[in-house]
Amino acid sequence: MNLAFPYGIDGRGRTREARRDEDNDEYIKGLIEQVLFTAPGERVMRPDFGSGLRRLLFAGNSPEMAATTQMLAQSALQQWLGNLIAVESVVVEAVDSALHVEVIYSVLRTQQRQEVTFVRSGQG
User: Fold this and answer.
1) Owning domain of residue 115
2) Range of lowest pLDDT (10-14, 107-111, 119-123)
3) CATH number at residue 74
């Protein structure tokens, strides 16, 4: 069973399942979100999984920090999802207490160009 991300309950009151299909946009977006917002060390069996973007929410905001953050996110996506997507660009911005992440990528199997934006606040 492939659990849907984010976790949820379906109409039958059961754990919502993800359709594991590399052509499914929602499936790939869920994978990208997991890589970006999982902190290294958070997964017991894969301690190096993730990019750790959340910890940068309250770090100092400077051009150097923005460049480092973008490089960190892009390399994590290439490492963990390089067999599914080709990352064209990652733009990370800290606005007030929220982190805005825009990822432009191409699905390798279909060559379709996609864009996804995530916003995470420091509240959780």
Assistant:
1) 28-121
2) 119-123
3) 3.10.450.40
pLDDT of residue 42: 87
Instruction: Please answer whether residues 56 and 43 qualify as being in contact, where contact means their C-beta atoms are separated by less than 8 angstroms.
Output: no
Tell me the two tokens of residue 56: 């940068």
Q: What are the tokens at 53?
A: 């973007």
Instruction: Return the biggest CA–CA distance within the chain.
Output: 49
Domains held by the chain: number: 1
**Encoded tokens for 20:** 């594991």
Kindly state whether residue 112 falls inside one of the protein's structural domains.
yes
Specify if 70 maps to a domain.
yes
- Residue 8, Cβ neighbours under 10 Å: how many? 10
User: What pairing do the DSSP bridges indicate for beta strands 113-121 and 85-95?
Assistant: unpaired
* Cis peptide upstream of residue 47 (ω within 30 degrees of 0): no
